[in-house]
Amino acid sequence: MALRITKAVIPAAGLGTRFLPATKAMPKEMLPVVDKPAIQYVVEEAVDAGLTDVLLITGRNKTALENHFDRMTELEATLEEKGDVDRLKKVEYSNDLADVHYVRQGDPRGLGHAVLRAKAHVGNQAFAVLLGDDLIDARDVLLSRMISEAKKRGASVVALLEVDPSVAHLYGVATVEATDVDDVVRITGLVEKPAKGTAPSNLAIIGRYVLQPEVFEVLETTEPGKGNEIQLTDALLTMAEGDIAGGVFGLIFRGRRYDTGDRVDYIKAIVQLAVDREDLGPELRPWLKEFSANLD
């Protein structure tokens, strides 16, 4: 029987401390990127790849996430009365975007622990994990390719990005060997945020994974690692070294990725996405050129 992959897991329990005070009362996943909250881009990516069963791993003060993907009848009625059809469609779109479920993480014990909270919902199926700090341009193929490779190889697949060696210590970094496909590699080693200057390569894991269900058993016995948290990277290393459930492969992504993980990169992401919009770009691009020309 063909491997079925229908479910996406999106960890969204973080406190968003880098964006305080904006995230004091609002989840960081609800911060707007142009005119949509960051979380909607991620759910749309999952849906575009054929994953319409979405589980959000949440925590305290995250009810805004549930509200966003639910009906808001008063707002919809007001827009309908005004005849504001375009905005009404945008509001209704998120209501029916996916079959969205929620589970609380409780104590923030790391990404591995967050993924483990999805075990009961996912069951014995391969599934995708999407992190909200990385937004992948909808014009570039990533998740659907990862799903295809996972099915083809019967293995777990992570997304890799070639980064400048000077910043490799900020990521989980992979040691790899070539396969029969140019941009697909077999992962032989992984280290989470290596000490500066010690990274084994410049291939960094970014926030997209397609995982075999055996990862849950591995996570249940994975001891806390970097930051005294249960690291998904450590569990994947165990699977790679032990060739568990087909091992772990990496897909090297060379498309457009927008990092919303810190304030400067978040602003860059907004600008990058806005200038390509048909409704915003024509007015924004000449203004940016004039603005940049006057910078010291």
Automatic annotation (TrEMBL):
Domain of life: Bacteria
Name of a matching Pfam family: NTP_transferase
Domain Nucleotidyl transferase: 7-272
Top EC group: transferase
Translocase as UniProt keyword: no
SUPFAM superfamilies tied to this protein: Nucleotide-diphospho-sugar transferases
Name this protein carries in UniProt: UTP--glucose-1-phosphate uridylyltransferase
Organism: Glaciihabitans arcticus
